[in-house]
């Protein structure tokens, strides 16, 4: 779908605990990339709704949300191995059975591995804003990728994005507003959503707030056709 990556694969140092968790548990919870749709009911062992998270970072918020919603399946795409190792530790520590991980680029992964109408939700929390103008082409939340997300959503499914970069928030709001089959249920406050109280505040978010960053939340629903 696109050839410009929305991330740079940094050689981040893994802690001993992250490395052990990756070595011990990746075989149980990580799914290799495959260029064909996944059998989601078989993977999770149930027919529960599927939420896809793009770039879960260290995965602590992902684990908290999954723990609070055992009737929802969570599939996370992430390319940075230290974060995968940390989420694997959280999965084991909390005894979670409703999270799986794909260590691969989310754009191609979602295009190839998720069936149309299969995802009940997409979560995108604090994606890289790529602030320099020459790097805007790397931004994740842009068309035609938003069109792909809309295609993969089930009826009444939603896309929920959070960013602390105001200019990127304006950009993403415009891109999602221009995407067919999506509607913004929040018309006040410039089109931004109120804080979703079920989403945990991360350390990354707290650091941004301490620096005076303004957090923007964007929430679009799918319109069945």
Please tell me about this protein's structure.
The chain is of the alpha/beta class and 225 residues long. The longest helix has 14 residues, at 16-29. α1 (16-29) crosses α4 (81-94) and α3 (60-68) runs parallel beside α4. 35% of the residues lie in helices and 18% in strands. The protein has helices at residues 16-29, 40-44, 60-68, 81-94, 106-113, 145-152, 166-177, 203-210; strands at 50-54, 73-77, 99-102, 119-125, 153-163, 182-183, 216-222. The model has no long low-confidence stretch (mean pLDDT 93). The chain has a 7-stranded mixed β-sheet, with helices on both faces.
Tell me briefly what this model is.
By secondary structure, this protein is of the alpha/beta class. The chain is built from eight helices and seven strands; from the N terminus they run ααβαβαβαβαβαβαβ.
Layout of secondary structure:
Blueprint: H1 16-29, H2 40-44, E1 50-54, H3 60-68, E2 73-77, H4 81-94, E3 99-102, H5 106-113, E4 119-125, H6 145-152, E5 153-163, H7 166-177, E6 182-183, H8 203-210, E7 216-222
Parallel strand pairs: 1-2, 1-4, 2-3, 4-5
Antiparallel strand pairs: 5-7, 6-7
Helix pairs in contact: 1-4, 3-4
Give the termini distance in whole angstroms: 23 Å
Number of helices: 8
Looking at the chains present, what oligomeric state does this protein adopt?
single chain
Strand content: 15-25%
Helix/strand structural class: alpha/beta
Taking the sheet with the most strands, its summary is:
7 strands, mixed
User: pLDDT average, as an integer?
Assistant: 93
